[in-house]
């Protein structure tokens, strides 16, 4: 009896996740914290977000200005290279498209930079067209410091190391420049559906 009900539950869970777990991933119901260093605590009155590098003019938003930008609430699956995936996580933040609106650039790449010194690189294509946000709320609550609060990059279609916590800006670049994990052997792009975990994976 108990065997049957366990089996039934297990099957139900698998059906819910059908087609949503990239190769080699398992379903995680909690929300693990993965940080390469201590959690920085930048006071909001000293926080800003800047768009620098190959831009016609540096763009800068204070915390209050950032909160006044048009926000979006989105629900997405997220996939960590350490093999956990979390389905239907809900975030609120500003689309990178909104931040790039009116910015003239010839850049093809971005490097996200953060309090604490973490960086991650992405093709501009992977952060435009409704694919990336600067998120400041998770499940309707202010984003917890351990998870990147006050704000983090969210790029759910790539492995979660690309979703830089405590993000403070984007540097627009003509030439790609590897970020923190990318220069330590992780894949340059990190598409979970192609299982691009490490340098050398196709
Ligand atoms: N600034 C910063 N961002 C970061 C990291 C980090 O160490 N520092 N770790 C990355 C990795 S490897 C993962 S899997 C996710 C983890 O986010 P979480 O702690 O909210 O689960 O954040 C990414 N962003
Ligand atoms: Mo990770």
Describe the secondary-structure layout:
Blueprint: H1 2-17, E1 26-27, E2 48-53, E3 59-62, H2 63-67, E4 72-79, E5 84-95, H3 96-100, E6 109-114, E7 119-123, E8 133-138, E9 141-142, E10 152-154, E11 167-173
Parallel strand pairs: 1-5, 2-11
Antiparallel strand pairs: 2-3, 4-5, 5-8, 6-7, 6-11, 8-9, 8-10
The structure holds ligand MTE and molybdenum atom (MO).
Q: In a nutshell, what does this entry contain?
A:
By secondary structure, the protein is an alpha+beta fold. It contains three helices and eleven strands; from the N terminus they run αβββαββαββββββ.
General description of the model:
With 202 residues, the protein is of the alpha+beta class. The strands form 2 sheets. Strands 1, 4, 5, 8, 9 and 10 form a 6-stranded mixed β-sheet that branches. The protein has a domain at 43-73 and 89-194: Alpha-Beta Complex (Sulfite Oxidase, Chain A, domain 2), CATH 3.90.420.10. The protein contains 3 helices and 11 strands; from the N terminus they run H-E-E-E-H-E-E-H-E-E-E-E-E-E. The model is unreliable at 1-12 (pLDDT under 50). The chain starts with a helix and ends in a 29-residue tail after the last strand. Helix content is 13%, strand content 30%. Ligand MTE is lined by residues 32-36, 80, 114, 116, 118, 147-148, 160-161, 163-166.
- Radius of gyration equals 18 Å
| Biggest sheet overview | 6 strands, mixed
Strand percentage: 25-35%
Number of strands: 11
């Amino acid at each position: 009896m108990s065997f049957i009900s366990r089996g039934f539950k297990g099957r139900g869970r698998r059906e819910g996740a059908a087609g949503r777990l990239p190769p080699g991933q398992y379903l995680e119901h909690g929300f693990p914290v993965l940080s390469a260093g201590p959690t920085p605590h930048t006071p909001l009155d000293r926080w800003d977000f800047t768009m620098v590098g190959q831009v016609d003019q540096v763009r800068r938003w204070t915390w209050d200005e950032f909160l006044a930008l048009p926000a979006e609430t989105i629900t997405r699956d997220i996939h960590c290279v350490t093999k956990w995936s979390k389905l239907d996580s809900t975030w609120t933040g500003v689309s990178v498209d909104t931040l790039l609106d009116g910015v003239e650039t010839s850049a093809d790449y971005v490097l996200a930079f953060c309090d604490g010194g973490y960086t991650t690189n992405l093709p501009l294509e992977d952060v435009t067209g409704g694919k990336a946000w600067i998120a400041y709320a998770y499940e309707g609550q202010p984003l917890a410091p351990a998870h990147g609060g006050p704000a983090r990059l969210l790029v759910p279609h790539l492995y979660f190391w690309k979703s830089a916590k405590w993000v403070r800006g984007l540097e627009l670049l003509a030439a790609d420049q590897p970020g923190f994990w990318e220069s330590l052997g992780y894949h340059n792009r990190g598409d979970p559906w192609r299982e691009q975990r490490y340098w050398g994976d196709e």
